[in-house]
Amino acid sequence: MMSRRWHSFAAGMTAVTLPLLAGCDSGVSASEPTSGSSGPITVEVNQSRDQYGKQAILLQLTNTTDTILTVTEARLRSTLFEAEISWEPSGGSLELPPRQPKSVPAALPAAACDTSGGTPAELNATINYSMPGKDPVGASTSPTDPFGVLSRNAGEQCIATEAAAVATIALDPGLEVAADGRTAVVRLIITPATPGTDAQSLTIEAIDETTLLAQSTAGPWPGNVAVGAARQELPLTIRPARCDPHAVAEDKVGTLLPLRVALGDRKGVLKIAAPNELRGRIYDFVTAACAG
After folding, report:
1. What average pLDDT does this structure show over 96-106?
2. How does DSSP classify residue 112?
């Protein structure tokens, strides 16, 4: 689960970040180097709520010198992913004032799901930068990932890939609102893969609530659902998890439903995103239910 601790970074604007913890066995090693280098620019990996739903991360770049540095590129290489994680400033360069961190977004490539679970992950970075009046240079550094963001994201990617070989799991775009408007029902549709494939067993052990949606006390969400050969529809009665004025306006991951699954002999979190049509209907429902 995501920790409730928030961490802030400056990147031309303030980014609210989640210290996301890697608590699941996802088939990739959760070990990441935690000691940084003493180079002119340090790199820390984190992830905001916005990036969490977009398979992206934040790179916090900190200038450790007393001189303005101009950064033109940052590249991370982790053995958890098939390609480099790269960032280039849209304006061609980014100025880093002395001792001031700035956070920049970077998209994640596909995870290397065949990575041995017993092999510690390796992580390194290359920063291209220049000092005033100097030619650009490239420097290597050892990034830190204090919240295990990379291992958690790689694990979730691999779980999603393996689960897709067993069944397609999606939320139906329809929403059935109760007569009193206080609850509604969404449907989780499970469609097994082609019969006869050598897929692993898949069990939905539990469905987690989100920052926006909670289960109804009168209709708790099902658990320990075994995915078999037949199509299944799981009705989920929902209610607003919060009714503060910014619940809908500031939502980033409230319609991203986390399923805790057991896939073969491994466990992890499978995130099911609401389609756009359903997302709008959920926002309308929460707004009306809270107003009532």
Report:
1. 94
2. -
